[in-house]
């Protein structure tokens, strides 16, 4: 429909000032995801997430001073659309859904299971139903194992650090065998260390996006993702 998604990688040499950090001469490489809405031939809305925490790490800099959002929810909120049960994606918009071919309708259902049931719901037993045995995570965390086991390690690590983790899925964009979701995650850091930060008891809220590829058998073969980890670190340490 009127929505488009791109996944990109930026690389170069840090030879000038960048977001307040003097030139280091270091080679930099980060990835990101953009989602746009187009109206009358022009972009009217833009959502984007970049690996700013990795950028700061590669420059040898500290936490990026980006502040924290106002009005963090005290408790995870339920979001429900008309005639739907409350759930993490109950009010998500799906552009062009009325024009989906059957395979795209199937892929929307798979995309919902992936982010709503597995990641938002923490139903780890679904991982081997959703992912291909050789699934490729194109944005692995440092030290992450390949395949399903590595993805599950990240999910468990996140939930151990944030026991009350909650997600709201805001939009799905489906095109053929590709699916993108846009979400907001919130919670309280009361459990295990998170990204090297000891339990802080602080609330946080960040945005993220995922892009997945789904094969003929309905299994997720590839995952690209970007999260506001720089904003997360700023909120935990601020």
Description:
With 238 residues, this protein is of the alpha+beta class. It is built from five helices and eight strands. The strands form two sheets. Strands 4-8-7-6-5 form a five-stranded mixed sheet. The protein has a three-stranded antiparallel sheet with strand order 1-2-3. The radius of gyration is 18 Å and the shape is globular.
Structural class: alpha+beta
| Termini gap | 40 Å
Give the overall shape. globular
Q: Pick out the low-confidence regions.
A: 64-84
Mean pLDDT across all amino acids: 90
DSSP helical segment count: 5
Radius of gyration: 18 Å
Q: Can you count the beta strands? A: 8
Strand order, main sheet: write it out. 4-8-7-6-5
How would you sum up the major sheet? 5 strands, mixed
| Percentage of residues in strands | 25-35%
Question: What's the SSE pattern?
Answer: EEEHHHEHEEEEH
Helix content: 10-25%
